[in-house]
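Figure 2 data, in text form.
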Amino acid sequence: MPGKARIYFEKALAIDPAMTVAKYNLGQTFLLMGDFERGWDFYEARFAWWEQNGVSRPCFPKPRWRGEHLRFKTILLCAEQGLGDTLQFIRYAPLLAGKGARVVVECQPELVTLLRTVPGIDRVVARGETLPRFDLWCPMMSLPLAFRTAGYSSVPNEIPYVRAGHDSINAWQARLSEDAGTKVGLVWAGNPRSFDHDLARTDARRSCALSTLTPLFSVPGIHFYSLQKGQAAIEARSVGAPLRLQDYTEYFSDFADTAAFVETLDLVISVDTSVAHLAGAMGKPVWLLSRYDGCWRWLIDRNDSPWYPTMRIFRQTKAGDWHGVIEHVTMELHKHVAGGIPANRK
């Protein structure tokens, strides 16, 4: 399917080389196919596509960094899309520091405390706050292009690159100390993003109901914990929620709090949302439940990820079929508990 899509997008561009939507989609197709060298270049068309559709794009009155000399310069990295995108691409910050730059990050407020733990970052500012002086700037998702990330082996995957606070970890470890057995965190839905019709449709495909995960609760020797935030979190607190699902999310005020809790777990099972990126960035075993038309970052026909060495990917084999995915995950969870098989075994 990606190969056919690529042909059509290339034909569209042959007719109209300025067709922004074709460039943008071709970029995502190349990335999905693992052709990073061409993918990142075409993916830059996202800015023009957003502008055409009335979506604000990052822009600052300073030169944009595209890979040139950085020594003694201050560079601003700005988050441009979702929380998971920021968590995935902040991995490039230590590389910038290694080039002699002072690194300032502007990100979503929920990530400020957590991103302060990333090596090489001098300052983290919440989006909307006054920025310090800087010489150059770069959108986070353009960093792979600037660093010429052309293949799987060139993906920066020094894990972990975000860390939770020791005091918070110790507090959660003490609180959960009597929960014997394997500790597994669950996320079953993303942000509905109802403000955008296309994003809302994508979320509907990547999310499922808590009831869909029911077979997992048949696996003995496991304590399950909800990591679900947002509207879908109500399901974890409803009368029909599984009795074996504990919910401490009311104590999570930001991603630093979530990270401290995740650090106490043995495994995170999540749909394609920010917590999956968080667990991967922390080096925790994470099982990603991917929709049939999965995001480009998870590539195709792989059950692992060059971005997150501790990730396993469980993919729908047909559109909308979460039943088959959960059946596979349940089987693997039984094996993990019975035989002590590492959760991140491919």
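Caption note: The two ends are 25 Å apart (CA to CA).
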